[in-house]
Specification:
Layout: H1 2-26, E1 30-35, E2 42-46, E3 49-53, E4 57-63, E5 66-74, E6 77-86, E7 90-97, E8 100-108, H2 145-157, H3 161-171, H4 179-186, H5 192-202, H6 222-239
Length: 242
């Protein structure tokens, strides 16, 4: 009987060691995904691996923790070069935004399985909004027409774009906007930088993000359109938590 008990205990210890070892195995490698919102064919290199694509998404799997060089090319011309740090057991989603590669989401590979981008396939995923954005997943109440008219009047009375942006800074965290209202504000700005900054400040509070494509028509230059695309893509990840 003692022999049987010893064998049983040994088997249980062995099985427990396998179960406990699984998370370590799953998180031994990391992943780094890069999105380039601009249209066209790009080649992205991370360390010694290169991927060319026209769909704007580049997936690097089975990467060890550490610092790696990243190079992004368009039409055989380098448009971005820097280093990134790959975190252990994490799938990092990064977006090329205004000539900078910005990480927008870290997914714990030891806690959950994911699809080929950022959607969880198993339970246990915590969808926590970042601190400091109380309306992240529930936009603030939509600004009424009369309130928006007063807001617009304050913007028109401001002399320079920087003063208009200060008014937006005071208002955007506490008011919801439609895309049409954001476009109206963009048209009150005098210069491209001010127009793009207005979108950046207001878009997190937009209540109809499905109409975000309409913002592109408010800009004349492709470089500004690309900046706005990056803002929209980045905010998409922020809305579902990071």
């Amino acid at each position: 009987m003692n022999t049987i008990k010893l064998i049983t205990i040994t088997a249980l210890v062995f099985l427990c060691s396998l179960v406990n070892a699984q998370p370590s195995f799953r998180t031994a490698f990391s992943e780094y995904f890069i999105e380039v919102p601009a249209r066209g064919r790009f080649t992205v290199s991370l360390g010694d691996e290169s991927i060319s694509s026209i769909n704007g998404r580049f997936r690097f799997f089975d990467i060890r923790e550490g610092r790696y060089p990243v190079v992004i090319e368009a039409n055989n011309k380098v448009i971005y070069r820097s280093d990134v740090f790959v975190k252990p057991g994490i799938r990092t989603i990064a977006v090329l935004n205004q000539d900078a590669l910005r990480p927008v989401k870290d997914l714990d590979l030891g806690r959950c399985s994911y699809d080929n981008w950022d959607k969880p396939l198993t339970e246990g995923y915590s969808n926590r909004p970042p601190m400091g954005r109380p309306y992240l997943n529930n936009c603030p109440p939509l600004m009424t027409s009369s309130a928006f008219e007063r807001f617009s009047k304050s913007l028109r009375q401001a002399s320079f774009d920087k003063n208009k942006l200060s008014v937006i800074d005071l208002t955007a965290p506490y008011a919801g906007f439609t895309v049409d209202q954001v476009i109206d504000v963009v048209r009150l700005m005098a210069f491209s930088d001010g127009k793009v900054s207005a979108v950046r400040k207001m878009f997190p509070s937009v209540t109809d993000p499905e109409n975000a494509f309409m913002l592109l028509d408010a800009f004349d230059f492709q470089k500004d359109k690309d900046k706005v695309k990056s803002i929209i893509v980045t905010e998409r990840y922020q809305r579902v938590g990071g």
